[in-house]
Amino acid sequence: MKKLPLKERIIETALVLFEQHGYHGVTVSQIVDECGTSKGGFYHNFKSKDELLYHIHDCFISYVLDKAREAYDNFDTPVSRLCATIQSFTKVFDLYKPHITVFYQESTYLVGDYYQKIDEKRDEYRKLIVQMIKEGQTNGDFRTEVPADISTMSIIGMINWTYKWFSKEGPLSIESIALIFNDLILHSLLTEKGMKDEAVNNYLLKSQPISF
């Protein structure tokens, strides 16, 4: 098996140690000892332990933000843009579950410029989803009586909780879970006009139920 580059090995080691012992319970010395490098190797890749924590947070937040931007650019309707964004958001809990777990455990220790950079990306992501929903309300696909801001926070809150219960060994794939989320969200937001869009059927559960 190909050996991971040193930077990735440091990240993988830190993820395990932070999850087990907490951010302040782990030293740089423990990280380098565990992954078989030196402090010189560590500081060649990260200025500090704080920067390492920032990088762990930034990996998955940058992923979902980039995917949301791609969804907006590559799809033509608010429904398809929102559903593609929900799919990529859900997928992150399969791709980056250890990163997200550490984020929720240790995010209070992210301060200064590192916190601001992460917060700016989270805010941009939220605003992009709000924009998708408002555009759907403008063209008549989404219900106007449901506020876009509250709908957005409900979507983010519901999907964020996936990190607590999703398991790769569980009965449902991450793709199946994303489909369930899209079905729930669309049935909450769509107008009668929106339901008539043929593309909507690509994001709804079929008549055959998914077994859990």
From TrEMBL:
Q: Which PROSITE patterns match?
A: HTH_TETR_2 (PS50977)
Domain HTH tetR-type residues, every copy? 4-64
A molecular function GO annotation:
DNA binding
Tell me which Pfam families the record gives. Answer: TetR_C_24, TetR_N
Keyword Transcription regulation appears in the UniProt entry: no
Feature: DNA-binding region = 27-46
Q: Where are the transmembrane segments?
A: none
Query: What keywords tag this UniProt record?
Result: DNA-binding, Repressor
Q: What InterPro entries does UniProt report for this protein, alphabetically?
A: Homeodomain-like_sf, HTH-type_Tx_Regulator, HTH_TetR, KstR2_TetR_C, Tet_transcr_reg_TetR-rel_C_sf
Protein name, entry field:
TetR/AcrR family transcriptional regulator
**Highest lineage ranks of the organism?**
Bacteria, Bacillati, Bacillota, Bacilli, Bacillales
